[in-house]
Design a protein that fits this description.
1408 residues; mainly beta; 6-stranded mixed sheet; glycoprotein; 94 strands; disordered N terminus
Length: 1408
């Protein structure tokens, strides 16, 4: 070490280095690394550029449950596209043969059916995304932890308890932390709804405050984590009447120490019980918390404190104080706030040449302090001789080789999380030599000085250039046997020596030297092999070092001889340094002790000792710290002030002496005071060292006193302050209110000043402690000066000449400032010399005065025009009264919003007295201000105006839509979501759309409205084992926003109980008057079908059904024959009646219960067989409805009257196909509706349909004339009905249908008509009504047109309805022949009138 120090001194004393310093920084070409910018430029060099390669999305920590699916997101950017792989716990996953894990196209990892058990946890662990680009490199993402909620285990369960009415109660239910989100409570085995009074703490504990009688019952908590629910023990809570006696305060739940991460929410639980009922308040670090006005602090039910969006400032000790007037108790807990790693400085891309040394810099912060590791191309960098971690976090790479090229990443990690940042290293090729001679090899390379840790090399100039003044040199060296070579360049041209530092003792190194000229690098010298010296024997550390203070300015240090002196100790060197500084001083010592004098009083110093022998300095001791002794303060307290409280007391305030002058711990202060008239009579009082004010009482009225204060230490009293005077009041004045307005204010303007004078308020009984003078150009709020209460005038200096100033005067006391008094004045111009005693004529130089400010605009107003536009208007007092702008002035408008808080101002210029600000955000509060500029003169900003833009429809859909099945109710699902990020107003509700067909038109989806800002909704009675698709749309006062993406959910499979017939929807209707349409969803009872209880029907029931069916069949045949005869000869009057019948058609809509109640006939007349029978709910499940999920189609029905306004058009929703009758609710009118019902109606144009039924094939439907083609109904609305399809696919044209939610058990009837002969026609220009098929047992069933009968807003009697049917050809021919031969026109007219009367009678009977 001594040799090394000597060599350094020898080199530093050389005059040659003075010359080198002037040329410092000139290096050999390409020798320095270039960061992040461009590569070093060399003629003819091919420059490679850095390739953008980074992660767009990185995986995040995720909590899952068994059996669910998980997506770990990852996406990387590069050109070409990178290859994505995944690591779990540091090992690459083989996703090719994995049937549960698969790689998504964007690089994300999808895990289906998460596996987790007590002894098998294959999915839980740490995942990392790895992106690779061939020939470029590899980068790794941050690691993300996948946690799978374990099996439920209760660490505490609810226990029976009682609570007095109005008091608080808690029920414990604590589970392992990862299951807390899955905990819910039940009361009397029914889900418990939480509200502001009943809350669940984050631990799972239930808190009930202000208990009522309804809170009594049996409670248990439930954990639902994917598997079967886990129930806790049941505990009974008894609510006792108020005993009207006091009871002691006790904590039911106290806060406990918590650790949270910045940005998280935290709840500090605190629940107390006692009589009277206690009130809870919170304090933090001895300061009361204001939970009422704070947006982040909320006092929850029972007294718990919730802090949202935690910051580092929230860390500290929190006190919960319960007080009921008779007693006070408190509890405390520490909140620790941690922060994830964050980069203060990220690595930057580097260009370099081989053999160079580089450093990647990386600076991170976090709490706890993060650890840093480095990764190169995805592999961990292990520190070695050539890869070193320097300055805690930076990576140094020595002696670069080509293989060092690639991507380096700094990964910071602490207990909270981890983060990564990377940079690219490119190794450049040396530029080819330009045309010209290159230097030969340097000659006579020798090691002129060899030490243990450094070697000095010297050489002579190359033979090709004997002078060598313009040559620079590079020294390449490496350890023997190591391929990695480092380089050291000379500092300036012509230098022919280099000292290589930081070598290892007793190690062989290989050196070679190369010269460079302006054409390039020349030949290399022959390798030189040199071995460093072995380590010398130096002294060890001096043991038993100790130090103690002798006086306030001296410290004695003592030590002993080193145990390993390695020879005779020649002397010691004592190093010492003041704590907190970096300047170390030393002194040579020959003995084993030394006293250091001249130190600062009561200051901490550190000391260390180094022993020296003949080889040099040894190992230093550890630092030892000691503080000099204290002394009396050397300075007086600061900022002494006096405040007269009343006629007998004065309050004294002061600050401690400066820290450097305290000379010890301040133990107290000595206050001395006396009457100004009797200076010899001094009174003293002592206060503690922490006290910085004192009230002196018992003084005389109207008397002036002098005060001074001195600081004390244990050593004595320091110097005192100067005397300060104050006079007590003559009488006790009122200070419970602010002073009144000063009685007068006078101003006298001068050229650059204004003299202000005033008189005190007329009411002398209120304390006045001083006066506040405000002044400014055009506004009195620019500057404020406060003066003593005794003062009656003041001169405002440094004003601008010829300027209009507004001045305000307010008296103030400790309560606040009083009412202001205003005055204005215009300072005199420069030419006014009335107040100038001396001025210079013909001055050689007159500086140009600064332009005086203009008066700011006034009356700024913001007028809201739309959701993104506000008009700003103002007035300019510097303009004439007509406010016309005739000069070149212009106005600058600025505006901003306070959300987020750091938003910058935006500016715009205007030449008129208004400006239209556009491009604003909807429903956002903005502030505006205006300034005026004329030439070089500008005003200050005006007073601000505020305006909130109008609301706009939401421009983003609701977020995070999730669908889960309700436990124990497989037909019920729960939809959860989050509000849209761009709500653009207050959300007033949501609309949930759901369907079994994701590709269906949106008006075919079922609608579920949600009122208010609720974020969850239940949908009941869905079809089991069926996939549903859900979309959500938010609305505010302006309308509907966009829909969310469709979310798929498959309902659970039915168990044995779900398949029972008694699971069918009940017939109880909801509110409204939807006309029930039985359609094909209704099926009469069948012989041998199951009863509602699942057992076969009795023989008696079967015989009765057979009798009814046969009887009805006979009646139907007779009626059909009669109808067929007279329908072939319908008169013109009958056509008009049919048109009138069409007006009774009523439309429907998808929303539930939006039509009026109508009581139709209570009988059903089967069209084909004229079968008259009551319609009851069928206990027989419809086999056609239970085969397949429900496919759907729809058609908007357009009225014939084209002149009608389009606002009467209504959307139609429909279904075709089959639906399980035990789940009619969702897609076919859920929540227990009656069987659907079809009304035949012949008011539509002919349509062709070929239907297959289980019993027979139907013939094509014939055409019939419509009754609605001639008239226009202004009240008309299109009709709709259900359409049920057969078990097979339609072979003909698909029929338009509309969805109806019947909510009343209505029955109807219709009379069939014989279709006229002729081929079917189809006119698309005419309105259409769906055709529905009906089924009856053991009969041929034909397609008929149906429509609901009702009115829009009023009741109408039922009208006869004629519907074309499609009987078999033989039957149709026979009926036509019979009708032609048996009836005359008059007879048909009578029969028709008779039939209409019969139908009216039936209607009257059923509606009675």
């Amino acid at each position: 070490m001594a040799a090394e120090r000597g060599a350094r001194r020898l080199l530093s004393t050389s005059s040659f280095w003075l010359y080198c310093l002037l040329l410092l920084g000139r290096r050999a070409p390409g020798a320095a690394a270039a960061r992040s910018g461009s590569a070093p430029q060399s003629p003819g060099a091919s420059i490679r550029t850095f390739t953008p390669f980074y992660f767009l999305v990185e995986p995040v920590d995720t909590l899952s449950v068994r059996g669910s699916s998980v997506i770990l997101n990852c996406s990387a950017y590069s050109e070409p596209s990178p290859k994505i792989e995944w690591k779990k716990d540091g090992t690459f996953l083989n996703l090719v043969s994995d049937d549960r894990r698969q790689l998504l196209p964007d690089g994300s990892l999808f895990i289906s059916n998460v596996v987790h058990s007590k002894h098998n946890k294959p999915d839980e662990g740490y995942y990392q995304c790895v992106a690779t680009v061939e020939s470029l490199g590899t980068i790794v993402s941050r690691t993300a932890k996948l946690t799978v909620a374990g099996l439920p285990r209760f660490t505490s369960q609810p226990e029976p308890s009682s609570v007095y009415a109005g008091n608080s109660a808690i029920l414990n239910c604590e589970v392992n932390a990862d299951l807390v989100p899955f905990v819910r409570w039940e009361q009397n085995r029914q889900p418990l709804l939480l509200d502001d009074r009943v809350i669940k703490l984050p631990s799972g504990t239930l808190v009930i405050s202000n208990a009522t009688e309804g809170d009594g019952g049996l409670y248990r908590c439930v954990v639902e984590s994917g598997g079967p629910p886990k129930y806790s023990d049941e505990a009974e809570l008894k609510v006792l009447p108020d005993p009207e006696v006091t009871s002691n305060l006790v904590f039911l739940k106290q806060p406990s120490p918590l650790v949270r991460v910045i940005g998280q929410d935290v709840v500090l639980p605190c629940v107390a019980s006692g009589l009277p009922t206690p009130a809870i308040k919170w304090m933090k670090n001895e300061e009361a918390l204001d939970t009422e006005s704070s947006e982040r602090l909320v006092l929850l039910s029972g007294g718990s404190l919730e802090i949202s969006d935690v910051t580092e400032d929230d860390a500290g000790t929190y006190f919960c104080i319960a007080d009921n007037g008779n007693e006070t108790i408190e509890a405390q807990a520490e909140l620790t706030v941690q922060a994830q790693p964050e980069f203060l400085k990220q690595p930057t891309n580097i260009y370099a040449h081989e053999s160079m040394d580089i450093i990647f810099e990386c600076e991170v912060t976090g709490k706890p302090t993060p650890t840093v590791k480095w990764v190169k191309n995805g592999d961990m960098v292990i520190p070695s001789d050539y890869f070193k971690i320097v300055k805690e976090h930076n990576l140094q790479v020595l002696g670069l080789v080509k293989s060092d090229e690639g991507f380096y990443q700094c990964i910071a990690e602490n207990d909270v999380g981890n983060a990564q940042a990377g940079a690219q290293l490119i190794i450049l090729e040396h530029a080819p030599a330009t045309t010209g001679p290159l230097p030969s090899a340097p000659r006579d390379v020798v090691a002129s000085l060899v030490s243990t840790r450094f070697i000095k090399l010297t050489w002579r100039t190359p033979a090709s250039d004997p002078h060598g003044d313009n040559l620079t040199y590079s020294v390449f060296y490496t350890k023997e046997g190591i391929a990695r070579e480092r380089v050291e360049n000379t500092s300036c041209p012509g230098e022919m020596q280099v000292t290589i530092q930081n070598l290892m003792p007793a190690t062989v190194y290989i050196f070679r030297v190369m010269a460079q000229n302006k054409h390039g690098s020349g030949e290399s010298s022959a390798p030189l092999r040199v071995e460093t010296q072995p380590e010398v024997q130096l002294p060890g550390p001096a043991p038993n070092i100790r130090a103690y203070a002798v006086s306030p300015t001296s410290i004695t240090v003592m030590w002993e001889t080193p145990l390993s002196g390695n020879g005779e100790i020649q002397n010691y060197k004592l190093y010492y340094m003041e704590k907190g500084t970096d300047k170390e001083q030393d002194v040579d010592v020959s003995s084993h002790s030394y006293t250091v004098n001249g130190l600062k009083k009561y200051t901490e110093y550190s000391f260390r000792v180094v022993a020296y022998n003949k080889h040099g300095p040894g190992v230093s001791t550890q630092d030892v710290a000691v503080r000099t002794l204290s002394d009396v303060p050397s300075a007086a307290p600061q900022n002494l002030s006096l405040e007269v409280r009343n006629s007998k007391s004065i309050m004294i305030h002061w600050q401690p002496p400066a820290p450097a002058t305290q000379n010890g711990q301040i133990t107290g202060y000595k206050i001395r005071y006396r009457k100004a008239s009797r200076k010899s009579d001094v009174t003293e009082t002592l206060v503690s060292g922490t006290q910085l004010s004192q009230l002196i009482e018992g003084l005389d009225r109207g008397t002036e006193y002098n005060f001074r204060v001195a600081a004390l230490t244990i050593n004595g009293t320091g110097p005192a302050t100067d005397w300060l005077s104050a006079e007590t009041f003559e009488s006790d004045l009122d200070e419970t209110r602010v002073p009144e307005v000063p009685s007068s204010l006078h101003v006298r303007p001068l050229v650059t000043s204004i003299v202000v004078s005033w008189t005190p308020p007329e009411n002398q009984n209120i304390v006045v402690r001083g006066y506040a003078i405000g002044y400014g150009i055009g506004s009195p709020h620019a500057q404020t000066i406060k003066v003593d209460y005794k003062q009656r005038y003041y001169t405002i200096e440094n004003l601008d000449p010829s300027s209009h100033y507004v001045i305000t005067l307010k008296a103030f006391n400790n309560v606040g400032e009083g009412i202001p008094l205003y005055e204005s004045a215009v300072t005199r111009p420069h030419t006014d010399t009335s107040e100038v005693d001396l001025f210079v004529i013909n001055a050689p130089y007159t500086p140009v005065p600064d332009p005086t400010p203009m008066m700011p605009p006034v009356g700024v107003q913001a007028s809201i025009l739309s959701h993104d536009t506000i008009r700003i208007t103002w007035a300019d007092n510097s303009l004439p009264k007509h406010q016309k702008i005739t000069d070149s002035r212009y106005y600058t408008v600025r505006w901003k919003t306070n959300i987020p808080a750091n938003t910058k101002y935006k500016n715009a210029n205007a030449t008129t007295l208004s400006y239209l600000v556009t491009g604003l955000k909807p429903n956002t509060l903005y502030e505006f201000s205006v300034m005026v500029t004329k030439g070089r003169r500008s005003s200050t900003w005006s007073m601000t105006a505020h305006g909130t833009t109008f609301e706009l429809v939401p421009t983003s859909p609701p977020k995070d839509v999730t669908v889960v099945s309700k436990e124990g109710k497989p037909k019920t699902i729960i939809v959860n979501w989050q509000p849209p990020s761009e709500a653009n107003g207050k959300i007033t509700g949501y609309i949930i759309y759901y369907s079994t067909d994701v590709n269906a038109e949106i008006h075919d989806w079922v609608i579920e409205p949600v009122v208010g800002n609720r974020l969850t909704h239940q949908i009941q009675e869905l079809t089991l084992d069926t996939p549903y698709y859900f979309k959500i749309q938010a609305r505010n006062s302006k309308g509907m926003g966009p829909m969310s993406e469709a979310v798929q959910f498959r309902t659970p499979k039915a168990d044995s109980s779900d398949k029972m017939p008694n699971d069918q929807a009940s017939g109880s209707g909801g509110k409204g008057s939807r006309l029930p349409d039985l359609g094909s969803d209704y099926k009469p009872p069948m012989s041998g079908s199951n009863s509602p209880h699942g057992s076969p029907t009795s023989p008696l029931d079967s015989n009765m059904l057979l009798v009814i069916i046969v009887s009805v069949g006979v009646i139907t045949i007779v009626v059909v024959v009669i109808i067929a005869v007279f329908c072939t000869r319908r008169t013109t009057s009958h056509q008009k009646k049919k048109r009138a019948a069409c007006k009774s058609v009523n439309g429907s809509h998808k929303y539930k219960g939006n039509s009026k109640d109508v009581k139709p006939p209570d009988l059903w007349i089967h069209h084909e067989r004229l079968e008259l029978k009551p319609i009851d709910k069928s206990p027989d499940p419809n086999p056609i409805m239970t085969d397949t999920p429900i496919p759907r189609n729809s058609q908007d029905i357009t009225p014939v009257d084209n002149s009608m306004d389009s606002n009467i058009h209504q959307r139609r929703n429909s279904y075709r196909g089959h639906e399980s009758e035990d789940s009619m609710s969702t897609l076919a009118g859920r929540r227990g509706m009656r069987p659907k019902m079809m009304m035949p109606f012949d008011s539509q144009p002919p349509q062709q349909s070929v239907r297959n039924t289980p019993s027979t094939d139907t013939m094509p439907a014939s055409s019939s004339q419509t009754c609605c083609t001639d008239h226009q109904d202004p009240e008309g609305a299109t009709s709709s009905s259900y359409l049920a399809s057969s078990q097979e696919e339609d072979s003909g044209q698909s029929l338009p249908t509309a969805h109806v939610r019947p909510s009343h058990p209505l029955k109807s009837f219709a009379v069939p008509a014989i279709p006229p002969p002729g081929p079917p026609t189809y006119d698309p220009a005419l309105p259409s009504t769906p055709l529905l098929s009906q089924q009856a047992l053991n009969h041929h069933i034909h397609s008929v047109k149906t429509a609901s009968i009702g009115t829009l807003g009023r009741s109408r009697p039922p009208m006869p309805v004629v519907v074309p049917s499609a009987p078999e050809v033989q039957e149709t021919t026979r009926m036509l022949e019979d009708s032609e031969s048996s009836y005359e026109p008059d007879e048909l007219t009578k029969e028709m009138a008779h039939l209409e009367g019969l139908m009216k009678d039936l209607n009257a009977i059923t509606t009675a």
